[in-house]
TrEMBL record:
Role summary: Catalyzes the reversible oxidation of malate to oxaloacetate.
Family as reported in the entry's similarity comment: Belongs to the LDH/MDH superfamily. MDH type 2 family.
Enzyme class, first EC level, given as a word: oxidoreductase
Protein name in UniProt: Malate dehydrogenase
PROSITE patterns xrefs: MDH
Catalytic residue positions: H183 (proton acceptor)
Binding-site residues, substrate: R88, R94, N127, R158
Binding annotation for NAD(+): G7, A8, A9, G10, Q11, I12, G13, N101, Q108, T125, G126, N127
Keyword Oxidoreductase: yes
Coiled coil: none
Species assigned in the record: Nocardioides bigeumensis
Domain Lactate/malate dehydrogenase C-terminal: 152-318
């Protein structure tokens, strides 16, 4: 399998590449070839990372290619993990950020459209992830829309971990967690459909104030808390979630559980069609299906609507910029 990673010389890349090469994605017996994309000034640093990959002598790493031309790096790839993005610099307005990332994801969408393998799957980690995925998807008309996703698995994993800690249960006992909406502070981590040890999580917790005032903001603002504590944004956990999401997508989610993935909306749960929004999904052999039939009460409705309204605003902004 040929796996492309963009932004490969960045922080997330430094964790992600070694996990991919050691077999965390498909298991140690299925070799992968890495195709690493960076901007020209970062290629030297990337060469150093490749030297370290060499030095690990990973048996499952069938080859590494690096470069700054997406048409060359994406040629024949089966999985593209789009991690590289333009961070918000000093004095940069939101519109500037969308425009800078728009240029990156327009070019990468077009390149994937023309050279990726027929079975390509694309996962976007680089922020603003949902809208970057929308831009790439809109610029790749020959790739089926359901092959694009944006990462909300880190939020999902954070939510599982917080709930496990609150209830004293192991993380493996927490099932059916859902992140709805945007990978941003408006996201809605939903415990009302989650279970702890087979029981409804909200009932087990039995503490509405904790759900509202502690759990939801802690999960939604965890990225900022990590920046505050570490001095830079979450990287190892983001890499780990990027792999969790890709592995479940390609190999299938557990039969007694679902995962959160931002995928193109078909209008389910009244999320406007065409937005890339996070849903509960089950996955199997490279396909995903939105879990249907969950009851959405008023508490959840307001929060899902707020986050999808933000996604619609981002979509309108990039539409105005002519990016989609
Ligand atoms: P970083 O700044 O350390 O690395 C980003 C890398 O992308 C840099 O090496 C840069 O040269 C490269 N890059 C920029 N433009 C590129 C282009 N056109 N083609 C290829 N490479 C390009 O950032 P870090 O910490 O690795 O994070 C990467 C992205 O992931 C950021 O946008 C960050 O906000 C996002 N992120 C997303 C999370 C999620 O849950 N969805 C969680 C944490 C981070």
């Amino acid at each position: 399998m040929k796996v492309a990673v963009t932004g490969a010389a960045g922080q997330i890349g430094y964790s992600l590449l070694f996990r991919l090469a050691s077999g965390s994605l498909l298991g140690p017996d299925r070799p992968i070839e890495l195709r690493l994309l960076e901007i020209e000034p970062a290629l030297k640093a990337l060469e150093g990372v490749v030297m370290e990959l060499d030095d690990c002598a990973f048996p499952g790493l069938a080859g590494v290619e690096i470069g700054s031309d997406p048409e060359k790096i994406f040629d024949g790839v089966n999985l593209a993990l789009l991690v590289g993005a333009r961070p918000r610099g000093p004095g940069m307005e939101r519109g500037d950020l969308l425009e800078a990332n728009g240029a990156i994801f327009t070019a990468q969408g077009k390149a994937l459209n023309s050279v990726a393998a027929d079975d390509i799957r694309i996962g976007v980690t680089g922020n603003p992830a949902n809208t970057n995925a929308l831009i790439a998807m809109s610029n790749a008309p020959d790739i089926p829309q359901e092959r694009f996703s944006a990462l909300t698995r880190l939020d999902h994993n954070r939510a599982i971990s917080q709930l496990a800690r609150k209830t004293g249960a192991p993380v493996t006992d927490v099932k059916h967690m859902t992140i709805w909406g945007n990978h941003s502070a408006t996201q809605y981590p939903d415990v009302f459909h989650a279970e702890v040890g087979g029981r409804n999580a909200a009932e087990v917790v039995d503490d509405q104030s904790w759900i509202e005032n502690d759990f939801i903001p802690t999960v939604a603002k965890r990225g900022a808390a990590i920046i505050e504590a570490r001095g830079s944004s979450s990287a190892a956990s983001a890499a780990s979630a990027t792999i969790d999401a890709a592995r479940d997508w390609l190999l299938g989610s557990a039969t007694d559980d679902w995962v959160s993935m931002a995928v193109v909306s078909d209008g389910s749960y009244d999320v406007p069609e065409g937005l890339i929004s996070s849903f509960p999904v089950t996955t199997s052999a490279g396909d995903w299906t939105i879990v249907q039939g969950l009851d959405i009460d008023d508490f959840s409705r307001v929060r899902i609507d707020a986050s999808t309204a933000e996604l619609a605003e981002e979509r309108d902004a990039v539409r105005e910029l002519g990016l989609i």
